[in-house]
Amino acid sequence: MSRAAKDRRRQAGADFVECSASKAARAIPATRGLPIAAVLAALSLALSCAKSEARDPLLPPDYASWRRTTAAALDYPIPGHMDDFRVIRANALAFRTVRRADPAGDVDFPSGSIVVKEAWPRGAVEGAPAKVYFMVKSPADPSARGAWVWGMLDPATGAEQVFESAFCITCHANANEKYPYADGNPGEAFRDYVFFPPGLPGADPEGYP
Amino acid sequence: MGKREREAAGKRPASLAGKINRIIAVILAIGLGATAFVFAWSLVEARRETTRRSLEDQADFLYAAIENFMLPGEAPIAVAFFEDVRLLSPDYRVELYRADGRSAFSDGTTIDAVNARLGRVRFAPRDGMPDVVVPPDQARFAAATAVPPSDVFFTEVTGGRSFYRIYRPLVNLPKCTGCHGADHTIRGVIDLRADVTELALLQSLTVAGTGGGFVLLVLLLALLIGRFMRTVVVRPVREIGALCRQVTDGRFDGQVVPRSSDEIGALAATVNGMVKGLRERAQLAKYVSSGTIDSLGADGERAERDERTLLFTDVRGFTAYTERTEPERVVEVLNRLLERQSAIVHAHGGDVDKFVGDEVVAVFSGEDAARRALEAAAEIRREVEDGRGNGAYDGLRVGAGLATGKVIHGMIGSERRADFTVIGDAVNVASRLCALAKGGEVIACRATRDAARSLPFKGPFRTRLKGKEDWQIVYYLDYGTEAPR
């Protein structure tokens, strides 16, 4: 793991199953007044427990019309998504960013970029995807890890679920190092947690229909 | 139970001091109790979070170490590292599980799988770490190895000791799939367990100390505030109450010493002023008629004409008596005589209007005024005549005259000196009849006698009075043994 990747992983933090005041308590130095910590912990507790409340949809309904970032057949097994058949798309903002990528190959998607991964179970690729995973660049969002909000859409119900845990970013941090997909990122460029950013060497920077 | 029921049951009603103490105790218990609770709770939470952060940081370090050891295939270093970490502190236990719950490095299963996947013997089999003695908690372990996985922090009590514990899942990263394959998401779980028995004991002692200190503080503050309230409020109120009871019993010589300039002090000063006024009024009653006193609070300019019975008494031969007797004795006997007559007049509902030397002027009003005046005169006569035998009045005798009629009563005098008194023909007639009466005689006018026919009289007799052209009809009270002369 590169130093930059380690730093980013530390920034991403971790999460716990128990509904607790962990995040706020971790942000408070132990030397501060206990009553203040108690009040903040109680407030954090209320806020963290309120995260399950409904929020506005993050994924626009036209995501299926966005262009694909790679023409490769993504049907090989990978941790987290196993052997689902996958299609990766990005919104127009994400494509425009990549066209301005620096010579080192580093990518830093602007706020508002969205990358979506549709997944069909092996052998059932017809019709609507069974699951739709998405990452929305939104640094100010309290649920963001690595400046991205990670989530999943259930196409059957239209319900979105935002992942509060570090699981997604733990794996996707590997995109900023060498990895076994696409071109493998031989230069260990910072690819902003995206394994298939638009415009990889040999790929159409305008994407694929 | 209501107040009446409590009194009926013989229970003493709650005192002001008791109520104040209870209110103070309740307020302190609520206020300080909430403070102590928040303090103890925040203390426990802060310590729990501190330990939790420490465990999480340690899990991060271990995670990074394992990732960096295993990526180049340095499993032996990872094994040695783990064994050394285990020896660092007896308060910590570190375990590394495979995803199936078995201890990592305990056999050659993983090495065999990696070699098979690589198609060559990349790693030689070796002795592994012993399998874990205590298997992981299945439910929590399942949460840590689910997809998506989660860190699991929990507390447990085993063998009488308390532990904080964390399960940190190891994710099968893309860069790990070259050796381990991509057919699974979770490689294993780091298990960190910290012995917090002493910490829990310290927390218990802290909470107990806080609670004990809270109780002591409440008691001390309740004592101090209660004492303060007793001094500032209860004691002055009790003193004021005692003074009021004295006044109720007819004693006006008491006083409350104001201890402060607040509302209680102002109340004490007001009560003192009230008692002083009552005392002055009581003393004034010795020197002026009750009619005068009553008129002080009324409109003194208002004069009215009403029927009254006037009683005049006079000591016979008093001038000669004063000439042959020592002045002190004269004053003593006269005061005793006037005091006794005054008491008798008051006992019969009359009002001593004034003393003029040895003469007493009394006014009777209301129903049976004439009869009560005659009875008072008879009792005065009997008192004085009886006193002749024991020398109480040095043998002096009293004559009395009574008259009944319309009189004018009001404030008579000047701006500087005025009395509430009566004027009119009945006053003159009573005075003349008193002058006419010899020692031991009680003479009444016809109107007086007609208003009290039930009493024994002698008469009528005809007499002339100074200032009256016509003969006047008069009656003598009849005492049976002594005929009028």
Provide the descriptors you would attach to this structure in a database record.
heterodimer; A: 209 residues; alpha+beta; Chalcone isomerase; 2 domains; 5 helices; 21% helix; globular; disordered N terminus; B: 485 residues; Beta-Lactamase; Alpha-Beta Plaits; eight-stranded mixed sheet
Structure notes:
The complex is a heterodimer of chains A (209) and B (485). Helix content of chain A is 21%, strand content 16%. Chain A has 209 residues and is an alpha+beta fold. Chain A folds into two domains: 1-14 and 56-209, Cytochrome P460 (Chalcone isomerase, 3-Layer(bba) Sandwich), CATH 3.50.70; 15-52. A six-stranded antiparallel beta sheet of chain A has the order 1-2-3-4-5-6. Chain B has 485 residues and is an alpha+beta fold. Chain B folds into two domains: 16-202, PAS domain (Beta-Lactamase); 302-477, Alpha-Beta Plaits (2-Layer Sandwich), CATH 3.30.70. Chain B has 14 helices and twelve strands. In chain B, the strands form two sheets. In chain B, strands 5, 6, 7, 8, 9, 10, 11 and 12 form an eight-stranded mixed beta sheet that branches. A four-stranded antiparallel beta sheet of chain B has the order 1-4-3-2, with helices on both faces. In chain B, strand 11 (457-464) and strand 12 (471-477) form a beta hairpin. Chain B is rod-shaped. The model of chain B is unreliable at 481-485 (pLDDT under 50). Chains A and B meet through helix 2, helix 3 and helix 5 of A and helix 2, strand 2 and strand 3 of B.
CATH superfamily of the largest domain in chain B: PAS domain
Q: Enumerate how many helices of chain B there are, as a single number.
A: 14
Q: In angstroms, what is the radius of gyration of chain A?
A: 18 Å
Rounded to the nearest angstrom, the distance between the terminal CA atoms of chain A is: 34 Å
The CATH fourth-level homologous superfamily of the largest domain in chain A = Cytochrome P460
Taken in chain order, the helices and strands of chain B follow as HHHEHHEEHEHHHEHHEEHEEHEHEE
Structural class call of chain A reads alpha+beta
CATH topology of the largest domain in chain B: Beta-Lactamase
Instruction: Using the alpha-carbon principal axes, give the shape of chain B.
Output: rod-shaped
**Biggest sheet record of chain A:** 6 strands, antiparallel
Main sheet attributes: strand count, strand direction, barrel closure of chain B? 8 strands, mixed
Distance between the termini of chain B: 76 Å
So, CATH architecture of the largest domain in chain B?
2-Layer Sandwich
* Rg of Cα set of chain B: 55 Å
Write down the domain tally of chain B.
Answer: 2
List the strand order in the largest sheet of chain A. 1-2-3-4-5-6
The CATH architecture classification of the largest domain in chain A is: 3-Layer(bba) Sandwich
SS-derived structural category of chain B: alpha+beta
Low-confidence stretches of chain B: 481-485
Task: Report the sheet-strand fraction of chain A.
Answer: 15-25%
